[in-house]
């Protein structure tokens, strides 16, 4: 397994270079370093000298990919792409365009993201599995048909509706919790209740419907019929037989997102005022802060790759017949 | 047997119900005393706190050499004391000494540096002598902490030494000292240091003697951790003594005194600059850009731009009082109720990051924010709910009226406008025909209707490029644009569409068609995509169709729109301007010829590329004149040229309405200065009472949720048990 993990990590390097290159190209197709300078310097009295000074200060005074002024390797290394990318691979994310240290910001903001994403994830999976198992238990009854209808309806509603509806009802009309905000030291649960509730309810439709499909497929297998014939209770059949056998597809979708929980959610964090990485990314896009966008995409890629490796490892735990070679 | 089963089910249901009810009650008990929705942490002491927000984004820069945005001024203008300031209440805006003992003493010099009279043609330089108050003292800060030998306590050789300090409050020892004239000189040198990339460097280098040379000199120096700018002299700066500084500028520029009221000229102590250049500090965001150090009424004690910024009263702030005079009507409006009382009134101000309009508005209505906005009124999204627009203005909705909320309207000293590119072959040019064409378009554009429909009446149609409250803006009949309006029954009335059609015909476009080719007249408007909606495009299309003119919009993002302006590749463009200082010069320069991007090959302000020799000559003359009738005459003539040449399609002065909860006092808005937090007074007892009254939780949904859950679960449980206990069924056959 160790060799497998090392191999996967080595494969990750060209992927990360590719992601970095793509982000770089996409960003600079729509933004030149001059555009970035102007957006950072404001809209008044922006002289060419000020633009040059900003570019020099922030390392954007070099050519993008090829420096014709330099000889040999310098033609490639004395470029914005190289100077900005090399540091990323050493996990030095540098400064944002407004001068703040990105590593410090990321390490501070990942905890509020996790505080919302982790309970939403855990409670969400638990609720989805329970609901799906219950519906499977009543398969082909009126309850099952209604449940599918409700799932589809829940899936069809925009996520924004859940957020705004939740804020309007629970926080504004019923005044049960604060409408937004976050305080990591004093009563953090008070601020997390609503976003977690919204996240869980918004995910029930898609999650439970997907799990129902997986469980139904298993419930038609011979071993289930055998268990039932031997007199096992429905609860036992569901939890001891169907659930473990349906784990592989569940793990495929679930384990891969676990590392990405640190990255938070763009919408939830923005609407609920959670100072996490999701809103960090959104703010960076809005303010054309390439340094943050690049760092966040890089971190996101790494976490995704780690998630995929963890998924592979989890298969061996869920199904002992599998081996990673 | 069946009865026993039924009993079992009932008992199970009761047990479930009991557990859930207990859980619900426990959850309620865990919430404590209502209100439960208070987003603000409980007060840890009895200091009077003002609850506010920063919205929609945190400030980017708090370094006085870099900061140039209004939302940043909200913070740094409470912390720093520039030499000059503005009177809180008087209108038109009045400049008053800030950190100075009195207004700067102005001396005019000839090329040899000899004093001459103000109106002498030989004037080559102007010298401003600034005399500081003798009671200015910096806030307590670790940069001023001294060791036993009198050297700086926190001066580290490497990043590891100071690694335990992550924020300014982490430093156990602080110190302070008096503010000196050299600190103001040092701050100006920081503006000139290209490493700081100050947006003022290019502009101020044109005026302050020796600034450009100083900048070039320090740029060439080798850099270590820190460069002590005190070791290098700037020709135009002289520190006469601890409290006196002179600044010499080239020629005459009376508006320079307004710049002295801006944060760029705030003092920076060299030891503070040295402190923030400690190794490793920047990696922990310990910089002057994030932790300002000043002598103003407040000091920053927490800076978490991701969630909140907290200011507290500076214990070293000098004696200061609420003004005893105001503008006409201030006494009756209660704006002078606190006249003569010592300020600041509050001990702490908390600014929480608020990105969503719904959250901000809800918290304001629940009483958790004292005002509805600080820099931006933030009422746009919810304006329909908050106000009823009537012909004679806006009225508050019953909900707002019930809360005894007060309104503070604010006409910003700024403009939003659509300008013509005067170099465009169709709408540009200075012939009579071209003027008539532009005037016809101006008349057709129903600015008042546009403002009512799309801005809910929050704007005033501009007859002049100088906004109200600034000399040069006249009211009544004398203030109307006679090319677009008539004065009828004591108010301006837009000229008729028939007249616009007539002008269009005289311009060579009868019924909106080119008289020579028969082609319909089509105009192109460049707008920023985010700044216009489909409905407003449809509206503009409709008003121009009334005179037979077709419109095509060319939306693009900010950078592309800017590129078009820089290259003159536009016909009609949208733009805005917010004044730096309340002087007509700061608006009239928007049409000054050399400011055209095509002339200066720079980001000039004259995006219309207006070129009028008479206007430019008047501008040069007006710029150096002191306020007075002679200057007013020149300004009036320039405004007349602007109207006659119909340089802009339409313009309006933006108006915003800020709301204040009943417990907040001294709410008069100041369009230019943000250094007004010290005048804000809050009645904390009333706030607490109202918050409790308005935020009693509605608990029935909790019980309803429990009942709903049970009603979903119980039938399932019953059905399951029935199925488990059922005997095999005979299926026939």
Q: Explain this structure to me?
A:
The complex is a heterodimer of chains A (325) and B (733). Chain A is mostly helical and 325 residues long. Chain A folds into two domains: 2-90, no CATH class; 106-318, MetI-like (MetI-like fold, Orthogonal Bundle). Chain A has 15 helices and no strands. The longest helix of chain A is centred in the middle third of the chain and has 36 residues, at 102-137. Chain B has 733 residues and is α+β, with helices and mostly antiparallel strands. In chain B, 30% of the residues lie in helices and 17% in strands. In chain B, strands 14, 15, 16, 19, 20, 21 and 22 form a seven-stranded mixed beta sheet that branches. In chain B, helix 11 (432-444) packs antiparallel against helix 13 and helix 18 packs antiparallel against helix 19. The longest helix of chain B is centred in the N-terminal third of the chain and has 30 residues, at 2-31. Chain B is globular and about 95 Å long. The model of chain B is unreliable at 1-13 (pLDDT under 50). At the A-B interface, helix 2, helix 3, helix 6, helix 8 and helix 13 of A face helix 4, helix 8, helix 15 and helix 21 of B.
